[in-house]
């Protein structure tokens, strides 16, 4: 008999396949977090480190909720996010046009490749003295470090996106009478957009870490970095650890939101249709 009963695994359920996969991924992520939480709590119970410098995971987690109820702490989060987003915006305004230029013209790409590959590995921390010299101890110094770090993923992804534009689509647009600007706006930019947004998303998590580090090194004592430094100097390690944990959750949340927006905005693109 050719028609057979569907196997249990093949039967459609209430949840779609993608929804079930997301639930599984969330479950795996929570399991990993619980394992880390349990390991942290176990190490704390061994009393290998002075509890003043290594508080328990439970104390840190509960204090996270205390911090979220403090307006002064929330205002410092906003200071850090302002420096981070401003830095990413400036980096995008620089990186996207140059990335499209280098990706479109091979001569420009070859001329810039050596310079980009030489400057890209330089860490932002190494440029902190220069940032302080140019902008003093200020939020602008922190923002400049974010710009430097965020620039390279955006630039490189813009170049990569332009390299992956289907040349047949470009030629078809020209056959229909599109000039170079119209081809760029109506064909090349839409195809590059997913790669550019991916570069911004990669920069996002790096930029948050750099913004916090920059506030510790080159800032005015404001922001999450300044708040963590002050809490550590006062000997209050539990609030400092809690602020670090919350910064991780902020980075994860921002990355998730941008990834979700990518899937919704660029569902038509080949790279998202595959997934």
Description:
Helix 2 crosses helix 10 and helix 9 packs antiparallel against helix 10. The radius of gyration is 24 Å and the shape is globular. The two termini are 35 Å apart. It has 11 helices and no strands. The protein has helices at residues 17-45, 57-68, 71-104, 106-119, 128-135, 139-163, 167-175, 180-217, 223-233, 237-265, 270-274. The chain is mainly alpha-helical.
Please outline the helices and strands.
Elements (H helix, E strand, L loop, with lengths): L16 H29 L11 H12 L2 H34 L1 H14 L8 H8 L3 H25 L3 H9 L4 H38 L5 H11 L3 H29 L4 H5 L1
Helix pairs in contact: 2-10, 3-4, 3-6, 3-8, 3-9, 5-6, 6-8, 7-8, 8-9, 8-10, 9-10
- Low-confidence stretches are 1-14
Anisotropy-based shape: globular
Characterize the largest beta sheet: strand count, sense, and whether it forms a barrel: none
How far apart the termini lie comes to: 35 Å
Rg, rounded, reads: 24 Å
